[in-house]
Structure formats: C-alpha cells, structure tokens
C-alpha cells in the first residue's frame, strides 16, 4: 500500500506545523537569462498525453469511489491515527481532499484573505469527499430563479444542475430557540452568501473554475473553506471568439447549465445574454476589468476593484512553475491581456497531485507562470 510520508502523525500536526507546508522555490536565477526551447511545444504535447493517462489511472484505481463494488475497501482505505490512539480508515480520495483543504487553508491564510470572526480551523478533521453536481427538478429551478426575480417560464427546456451545498450537519441538540448548536441554517447561509458576494468583507476577487469529474474539485474545497473566509467568487466563461472572462458566482444559490465543451456555466449568464439579445457565446455585451472580470452590476452582484486570486485548472505542472492545460491557451491569453504589470498583481494558483509533477522544462513564450501549486503533500511557492 502506498503510504504518505507523515501519515501516521497527520492528526497530531497543528496549525504551526502546517504553516511549514509552503515550500519556496526560487526561480529568479533560472529565468534571469532564460531562453525558450524550440521543442517545448512538442514536449508539452507528450506530457499532456502522458498526464491524461496518469490522471485516468489515479481516478479509477487510486482514488476509487466509496461504493465501487469492484474495489476491495480494505485495499482502498488509508489508516490515520486519531488523537485518542485509535485508527480511522478513510478512502484515498478523502485523504487527498482533506490534505488539499488543509493546505489551501494555509495558503489563503498566508495571503491574508479576509477571515470570518470566531472561526478556528480544525486541522484534525477528516473530510469525506462527495461530487455534488445534481440535476435540478422543475420546482427547484423556480426556487433558484425566484432569488433573482426571474420567471421560471423564461428557463425554457434547458437541463439544469446545481452544485449542492453539502456537509449540513444532522440535528443533534437544540437550544431553546430550536436552532441546532453548531449548525448553519439555510437562512444564515443565504445571508452570509449575499454579504460576501456583495463584497462588504471580502478583500480579494477569487476566480475559480466549475470542475469536471476529471479535475480537482475546487468547489468542494471552497465550500468547506467558506466557513472560515470571505469569498467573492467568479467563474470562467469561454466565448466563440476563443476568449475567456470571469462571471460572478453565488456558491449557495447556483443554477448551472452545460455550455461549450460540456462545461457548466451559471444560468444567469445565459439569461443575461437572452435579455440583451446577444449571442450566448460572446462577451461583447459585458464590461470587463483588465483581468477580464465582469464589472457590470448584474442581478445582486456588483464589482469592486481588488487584487485577484485565480485558481487555474491544469493537467500537469513542473518544478519551474509552468503548467500544461487543455492546449487551447484560454488562461494564458486572458491573464496576459492586461499587460505585464496587471499579470504580476494577480495571484495564480493551481490545485493538483504530486504524481502530476514533471521534472522537465516545457515553458513556451506565451505561457503564464504559476505562483503556487497546492497538492496533497504541501504548497509550492514559485518565486520568479
């Protein structure tokens, strides 16, 4: 069985120990007189093919779903010591996401992302991963649209999904008011979401992606960390002009439809296009910031100029801060569009696995460099 290097001590490690998980990688000398190789494009194509194969093996064999009848739970489990000396068995997928959540928390804390008062992160908690996209029934669609005063008649025959708010605690104990101790009610969550989304307490605009089943589930991680930080969220939209921009996103009240390449987008974007009589594959009807965030006031979302954190999907990365993506160059173009100074102001982060780290240089002239990569072993901070 593959064993994590400090797995036996993982629950004994506290916040001070986890703060050491950020490893600086000084690349200033490497890029001082850097010359791009003419073979980088070909190397990247090979890495992309290989990484897809590795990823598929990881998803099907190393991170099995909990109820998969073809895989023995004994072989799929990883054992962690509990503070009381016992042993807890968890699936690899739970272990990996627990580590990703812990390390992302440390990263956001180090970046001084605005924190919620009175919320202390529990570094011994094990998170049980669940893929939370769910089809939306007709009556549920109406509930989501009512929040934005949109008639459900305008939704047409689209197939709707939502990323469900997971992890609600079961009723254990009630105060005299009837509210459960330690549980956030739907009303509380809605108020928090509205406050954070309007940006009254968030100090960063955070651009995430709506993950497919073959990508690290950033929504699950953000969902768990929403309890500790104020988030002002945006998600990417690809256009028919082969550009990318970022549309506001409500973590609690989201209604999604599949768009280009089968990737989910907020229905509010398509509704806005329809209302304006604009092609849904275009961004020409929207005002954008230099980093391509929507600046228009839409529904109950409003834009505030702040520093940006971009969580960028990838297939593979290397120890020089470069990444391999889908090969279409959307993020490279979008984040370079505002110029070098604007690009430097943006914090660029990717979530991945250690097994997808390649010790080979494949940087092309048009590629952006990552500032951080978070994986199950820690955080790489690339200083270039």
Automatic annotation (TrEMBL):
One of its GO terms (molecular function) is 5-formyltetrahydrofolate cyclo-ligase activity. It catalyses: (6S)-5-formyl-5,6,7,8-tetrahydrofolate + ATP = (6R)-5,10-methenyltetrahydrofolate + ADP + phosphate. Its EC number is 6.3.3.2. Residues 183-193 have a biased composition (Acidic residues). Keywords: ATP-binding, Nucleotide-binding. InterPro entries: FTHF_cligase (IPR002698), FTHF_cligase-like_sf (IPR024185), NagB/RpiA_transferase-like (IPR037171). Residues 174-195 are annotated as: Disordered. It comes from the Eukaryota. One of its GO terms (biological process) is tetrahydrofolate interconversion. One of its GO terms (cellular component) is mitochondrion. SUPFAM superfamilies: NagB/RpiA/CoA transferase-like (SSF100950). Belongs to the 5-formyltetrahydrofolate cyclo-ligase family. This is 5-formyltetrahydrofolate cyclo-ligase. It comes from Plasmodium vivax (strain Salvador I).
């Amino acid at each position: 069985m593959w064993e994590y290097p400090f797995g036996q001590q993982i629950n004994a490690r506290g916040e001070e120990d986890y703060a050491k998980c950020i490893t600086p990688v000084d690349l200033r000398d490497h890029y001082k007189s850097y010359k791009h190789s003419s073979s980088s494009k070909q190397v990247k194509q090979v890495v992309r093919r290989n990484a897809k194969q590795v990823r598929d093996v990881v998803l099907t064999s190393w991170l099995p779903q909990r109820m998969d009848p073809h895989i023995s739970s004994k072989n799929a489990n990883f054992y962690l010591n509990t503070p009381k000396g016992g042993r807890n068995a968890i699936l690899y997928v739970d272990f990996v996401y627990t580590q990703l959540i812990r390390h992302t928390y440390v990263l956001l804390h180090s970046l001084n992302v605005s924190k919620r008062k009175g919320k202390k992160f529990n570094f011994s908690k094990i998170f049980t991963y669940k893929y939370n996209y769910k089809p939306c029934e007709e009556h549920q669609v109406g509930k989501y649209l009512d929040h934005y005063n949109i008639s459900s008649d305008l939704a047409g025959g689209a197939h709707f999904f939502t990323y469900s708010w997971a992890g609600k605690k079961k009723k254990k104990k009630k105060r005299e008011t009837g509210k459960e101790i330690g549980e956030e009610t739907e009303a509380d969550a809605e108020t928090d979401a509205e406050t954070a989304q309007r940006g009254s307490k968030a100090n960063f605009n955070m651009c995430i992606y709506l993950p497919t089943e073959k990508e690290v589930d950033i929504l699950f991680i953000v969902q768990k960390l929403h309890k500790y930080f104020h988030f002002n969220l945006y998600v990417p939209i690809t256009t028919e002009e082969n550009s990318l921009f970022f549309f506001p996103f409500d973590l609690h009240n989201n209604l999604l439809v599949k768009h280009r390449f089968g990737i989910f987008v907020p229905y509010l974007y398509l509704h806005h296009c329809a209302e304006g009589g604009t092609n849904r594959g275009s961004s020409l009807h929207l005002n954008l910031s230099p980093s391509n965030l929507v600046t228009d006031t839409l529904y109950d979302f409003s834009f505030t100029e702040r520093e940006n954190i971009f969580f960028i999907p990838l297939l593979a990365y290397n120890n020089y801060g470069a990444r391999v993506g889908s090969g279409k160059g959307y993020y490279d173009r979008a984040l370079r569009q505002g110029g070098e100074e604007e690009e430097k102001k943006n914090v660029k982060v990717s979530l991945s696995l250690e097994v997808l780290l390649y010790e080979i240089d494949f940087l092309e002239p048009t590629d952006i460099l990552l500032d951080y990569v978070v994986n199950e072993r820690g955080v790489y901070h690339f200083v270039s």
